[in-house]
Amino acid sequence: MRKVYYIKQTPSGRVFDAVNGIVIALLMFLMIYPFWNMLVLSFNDGTDALLGKLYFWPRVWTLSNYEYVFKNRDLLHGALVSVLRVVVGTVTGVICNALLGYIVSCRQFYGRKFMRILFIITMYFGGGLIPTYLLMLELGFMNNFLVYIIPGLFSCYYMLLASSYIQNIPEALFESARIDGASELKTFVRIVVPLAMPMLACIAVYIGVGHWNSWFDVSLYSRDGTWDTLQIILYRLLNQANAKADITNQQQLYMSMRTIQPETVRAATTVVVVVPIVFIYPFFQRYFVGGITLGAVKG
Questions:
Q1: Alpha carbon separation from 107 to 104, 148, 161, 163, 169 (Å, rounded)
Q2: Cα separation of the two ends of the chain
Q3: 11-42 and 262-295 are packed helices; what angle lies between their axes, rounded to 10 degrees?
Q4: Which residue of 7, 21, 214, 233 has the lowest C-beta tally within 10 Å?
Q5: Res. 94: pLDDT tops 90
Q6: Which percentage of the chain shows pLDDT scores above 90?
Q7: Burial class of 174 by CB neighbour count within 10 A (0 to 12, 13 to 18, 19+)
Q8: Looking at residue 10, what DSSP letter applies?
Q9: In 3-state terms, what secondary structure has residue 44?
């Protein structure tokens, strides 16, 4: 029977562990509490919320804020457009950036260094808002779903992340595939994609969250509201742009808004937008960490 030896902890070690635990608990509280307070505010009566001192639990429970948010007829349409944008934008972005990363990491491609430098320049210099807007206008992307997808197909940062990860794959695997007659595309699909799943998942998280949170480009390019996303509807609700315009009778306005305040509506709409990411992100966290650490070995 094996003996188990326990190392006796010194008093200084116990003090360090205690202080370390307190600091970590404090940091966790500072990160979690703002979200919890937003949730509490969203479930509280708006008039009562104006009194303040809402910390850990609602004083007057109500679902009026969420009823007010979900009564918006454009909410479901915006959610569908947001989901479509995330799915299409993430899939195309991952494929394009992974292919670009593979190209600039191929030793047989003599223009890879020039292409890498060309993309790195775009990290430091851009055309600006007005030239970009005019370009989208000339391309006919106004009120077009493609304006959300095409401008973000390639990213220098994601390209560097993908190429750094692919460079860690043994070159012998690529050489054996080429000897067997595999094309570069087949080599990418059969070898790179299975081995680079952590990196691809990491890029997918970045791109997906970026598409989900984006709203400024929607305000620029979706003029008639056909391709309005959930985030731009949230923005309009927060600014109360269309909420009171639909109610003409002041008595009806008072009756419908007496338990609702902009602060509680803001909290409810924020919760509606944040919750999907909160539930999805933990499933990709291990790929996210793995892709960042393994892809950062080489530059």
A1: 8, 33, 17, 12, 13
A2: 50
A3: 140
A4: 7
A5: yes
A6: 9
A7: buried
A8: P
A9: strand
